[in-house]
Fold each of these.
Amino acid sequence: MFKLTIDPGHGGKDPGAVGPTGVQEKVITLAVAKKVAAILQPVMSVTLTRYADIRLSENLSVDLTKRAELANSSLSDVFVSIHVNAAIGPAAHGTETHCYPGSIKGAVLAQCLQDRLVPALGLTDRGTKQSNFAVLRQSKMPAALVELAFISNLVEEKLLQSEDFQNRAALAIAHGICDFLGIATPVQSPDANSIIAGGQVFSGKLIDGQTWIPLRAVLEALGHKVTWDAATRTVVVE
């Protein structure tokens, strides 16, 4: 089974770029990353560099290094970092994807992602670029960094908050990763209700306005022992 590391950019005290109405990059990147994980979990082992609003280190340089090291130590086949763009002026717009200079496989991965993101999001195609970003430079596997849209652009900031836009971005990223690996994308709605427990993503079903999650699997992922007492017809959680 392929292994994937998804890196939701920023987190904790580092909000990333902040839009004109106060939307924070770190919130968008984590939301999209979790959706990507929920889509791809059935066909590959997925790890997120962060599962909550945290940083891996208070030192920015160390934080970025730890993200790459996490992917390296897990022997991931692919590393994808998710970000949103920003510019001084409010007019900048569009989608772009980055790879490390000279990385042939990284360039292929970046193009696969860009080819899926542009039609899915409907924004200006800013192409793929070669960039010396730390997470790309320090990753030992094919790596790419996506910039979904410009949070500094009022129109795109509003889009980034949209559940539909996030769903389309997540599905496009999932398709791009699968295109690169040469496998089929699992048939799963990107807006599936899901939770993350014990480092695993569990997809639920929305029934009558309520989300139903496989509780036993979640409890076991959290380290609990779950048994069924047939005599008393009760579930025992230890």
Amino acid sequence: MTITSEAQTTLLRDPVAQELLASTIPARLAYTWRDGTPRVIPIWFHWTGEEILLGAPPNSPKMKVLVERPAVSLTIDTNEWPAKALVIRGTARVTILDEPFPEWLLTAQRYVGEEGGRDFLALVKQTFSGWARIAIQPEEVRLLDIAAGKFPSAWSSGSHA
């Protein structure tokens, strides 16, 4: 599935979406376990302008189900008031690689600085025999910006779906 024009416009042009996508706030990735129960984990991310990239050890629990159950949601949100949150739904595509993908260094450097990112990448390469690249292409995007009066449409319409 390709990114919708509405989702792309929000992600590429909205200043709050841009702020959250450039932040060091971990995303919260939601996925469904084999028994149908939900799971949510904090995870570093990298926005390419077209997709959200996540990295993980290939043997991590989420990797056991993302191929079978690729429908995911993630949020990047603030702790300060007035609240801001970017909620993205999409489908995860997983590729197992021999080593971390190039954008993973950029991801690590954004979170822990240039030297810390290189050190973390070296630790990943030393610790794991491979690395998973999880690509999520946004299919639906909702933005919450209390200060600007932007509420996800489901909230404003009274729907709880």
Amino acid sequence: MDDFVNCPIARIESRLVYEDRWLGMRVDTVHQRGKRAPYGVIERADSVIVIPVAPDREILLLQQFRYPTQEYSWELPMGAMDDGEIPEECARREFEEETGLVAISVRAIGRFRPVPALTPQAATVFEARVATMPDTTMVPPDEDEIVGWKAITPTGLRAMLSAGEITDGFTLASLALLFVTCQI
């Protein structure tokens, strides 16, 4: 196992095989452990995840239908950063686009790499303080993607997590950072 600890992987060449507005896929030829091998890499923009927290500690979750899984998913507001955009600006923009709310304050609470073996993408997590939660009977402003939303207490959130009702990896990692950094 010690042979792999300091084993660099050197890129010999790279070929873009697919690209759309959300991602690109390239196949690199790498030199690893004395051999040439293909290595697939997904290029995605860095992203932000926003955890909306009200004064009563309720957290806002959004419900979306996800085509690849053919399932509805409870998630936090999130999105990709535009070129040249700084994470806090992106967090405020995505939060307002997906909820119609303006945050009183936004602060970064952590950063992670969702799938480091597949993509160099990084995700920055923000806690957004809001004065009140939106009326959850109203249609969310980002109606193309978001089909519903709900404000939930920390106890209710823990129950959803325990029941496996939250399956989105970005949301799970972000909530773990929230629980560790904010004792919610």
Amino acid sequence: MARWYPLEAVDERFFASAPYVYSFPVELDVAPVRVWQALTSDESLAAWPLGVRSLRWLTPRPFGVGTRREVVLPLAAMTIREEFFRWDDGEGYSFCVREANRRVLRQFAEDYVVEATPTGSRFTWTIALTPAPWARAPMWLTQWANPLMFGLLPRAARRYFAAHP
């Protein structure tokens, strides 16, 4: 049985105050409704060629603020439990990680925004985090690599929607 470690809850202010914030907008040739359908599907990001092994919604539909899900991230050798603190149907959502099976993070949140463009949509993914005290030095030393690693999501979005318009 996995042991769970709590993370500190955050809200939308965390995206302005976190020590590490990364934002990745990506232009997609699909309608915003299609992006929203993919983000809120049963598989969600687990269907994208990304590095999410599985995703399980823990809260029944309809989803909204307070919705929870569990995500297995094999590249990080981590499983996390998320709770949504913003949910704007068709436009985006934000969540924070409430528990993880590894003590790597003190705070972690993600924000997803879906906007219409003249040629389809813009999907902006923002991640904000505070590492656990023991992980501050390694995080600082490897911070140059974080945009490369986190930048996988926009590339995965392009590949997914090219194959599933």
